[in-house]
């Protein structure tokens, strides 16, 4: 990996130490160019005409996302964010009184409030799978839970791969193996893992996967996608349709599209879609194994440096945490730390209980400072960030 070349192609690296890839990654120049040039084309020849001219490239975005996930292009729907994809899939499931949803302790807030709403609406029960000793969702606990409840009463296993509040990487393939054994629908929130590590839906064994473009994939904001396994797709009626997802074939009849795009609507932001396609191809070119190895190495350095500082708490769970690092400094609230880092042009973010309430309450977490490096960050940037945090602690006492 030629880090200097990759950084030269990433305009934001000239201005900031960007350690907020779990918020939104810095777009590389080819992604920005793809968005601009499609907008220019729309302004020059017209929006519909631009989409027609670029029809092959726009269709190619489905193929790119499919390659990224080891899926087929007709199993992909493009979305404006991860939650839209997740919610469109989730709300299409036919829930009945007494159904169970099994989820994880690190589940994302947007997903969990949807469980609560469906529980209120249909009398569905939400059960949380226990963690193992490392803090990861425990596949054996899941197995025991299914045997206890009865597989026929479980409508869905839905978990988060990498939570928003730390470096935990859940054992998604082991959980997939259990889901497959009992033939239970498996929905994976891969928002924070996509673009950060290799992701293969066949190896994971999930039926549905949602992800954002803007984070570790480095695509524009307002992009995301949904994967739905072909065999599952045929039995899913979207909760909302329009005349793109369900074609109006006769006065009193519509026919759903055969492909995953039955979860899309007619109108879309084609400029950002072009950016998403380029971002996915860019990540595939750099290589997801190499991306993961370097991002993890930089995060490990941050973690090690933070752990060496007196009083600093580091909160990442799991045996081998990924590129999200969360910590706290005693007597210095997370928002002040983020603000002080910003004064030194370091981008960080804060993570509070609203995003991961089960985990926050179980571990009694304070609001956390979150640093999320990516492969294009330099070792110098990591050292500089540690220095600034070290001086913050020193100046406090
Ligand atoms: C784990 C996880 N899931 C889902 C989301 C939601 O993604 P989006 O904002 O693209 O809807 C996030 C966003 O931070 C997240 O961290």
Notes on the structure:
- The chain has 397 residues and is an alpha/beta fold.
- It has two domains: 3-19 and 287-396, Aspartate Aminotransferase, domain 1; 31-285, Aspartate Aminotransferase, domain 2 (3-Layer(aba) Sandwich).
- 43% of the residues lie in helices and 15% in strands.
- The chain has helices spanning 3-8, 29-45, 47-53, 55-69, 82-90, 109-122, 139-149, 172-182, 201-204, 230-233, 270-286, 288-307, 334-343, 357-362, 379-396; strands spanning 17-18, 76-79, 100-104, 125-129, 154-160, 186-189, 208-212, 224-228, 246-250, 253-256, 313-314, 325-328, 346-347, 349-351, 368-371.
- Helix 2 (29-45) runs antiparallel to helix 11, helix 4 (55-69) crosses helix 11 (270-286) and helix 7 packs parallel to helix 8 (172-182).
- The model has no long low-confidence stretch (mean pLDDT 97).
- Pyridoxal-5'-phosphate (PLP) binds next to helix 5.
- Pyridoxal-5'-phosphate (PLP) binds at residues 81-83, 108, 110, 160, 163-164, 189, 191-192, 212, 224.
């Amino acid at each position: 990996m030629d880090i200097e070349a990759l950084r030269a192609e990433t305009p934001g690296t000239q201005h900031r130490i960007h350690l907020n890839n779990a918020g939104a990654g810095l777009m590389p120049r080819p992604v920005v160019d793809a968005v601009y040039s499609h907008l220019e084309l729309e302004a020059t020849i017209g929006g519909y005409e631009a989409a027609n001219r670029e029809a092959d490239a726009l269709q190619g975005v489905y193929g790119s996302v499919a390659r990224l996930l080891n899926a087929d292009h007709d199993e992909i729907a493009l979305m404006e964010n991860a939650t839209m994809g997740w919610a469109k899939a989730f709300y299409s499931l036919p829930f009945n009184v007494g159904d169970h949803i099994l989820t994880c302790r690190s589940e994302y807030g947007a997903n969990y409030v949807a469980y609560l709403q469906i529980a209120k609406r249909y009398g569905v029960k939400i059960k949380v799978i226990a963690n193992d000793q490392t803090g990861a969702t425990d596949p054996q606990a899941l197995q025991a839970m299914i045997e206890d409840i009865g597989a026929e009463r479980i409508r869905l296993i839905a978990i988060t791969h990498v939570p928003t509040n730390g470096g935990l990487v859940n054992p998604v393939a082991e959980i997939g193996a259990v889901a497959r054994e009992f033939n239970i629908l498996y929905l994976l929130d891969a928002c924070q893992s996509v673009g950060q590590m290799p992701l293969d839906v066949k190896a994971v064994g999930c039926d549905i996967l949602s992800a954002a473009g803007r984070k570790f994939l480095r695509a524009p904001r307002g992009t995301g996608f949904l994967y739905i396994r072909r065999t599952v797709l045929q039995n899913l009626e979207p909760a909302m349709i329009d005349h793109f997802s369900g074609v109006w074939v006769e006065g009193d009849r519509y026919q759903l599209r055969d492909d995953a795009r039955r979860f899309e609507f007619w109108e879309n932001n084609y400029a950002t879609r072009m950016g998403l396609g380029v971002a996915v191809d860019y990540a595939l070119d750099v290589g997801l194994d190499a991306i993961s190895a370097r991002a993890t190495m930089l995060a490990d350095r941050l973690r090690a440096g933070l752990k060496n500082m007196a009083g600093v708490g580091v909160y990442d769970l799991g045996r081998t945490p990924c590129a999200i690092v969360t910590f706290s400094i005693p007597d210095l609230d997370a928002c002040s730390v983020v603000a002080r880092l910003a004064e030194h042009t370091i981008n960080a973010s804060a993570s509070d209980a609203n995003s991961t309430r089960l985990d926050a309450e179980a571990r009694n977490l304070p609001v956390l400072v979150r640093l999320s490096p990516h492969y294009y960050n330099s070792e110098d940037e990591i050292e500089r960030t540690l220095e600034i945090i070290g001086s913050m602690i020193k100046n406090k006492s």
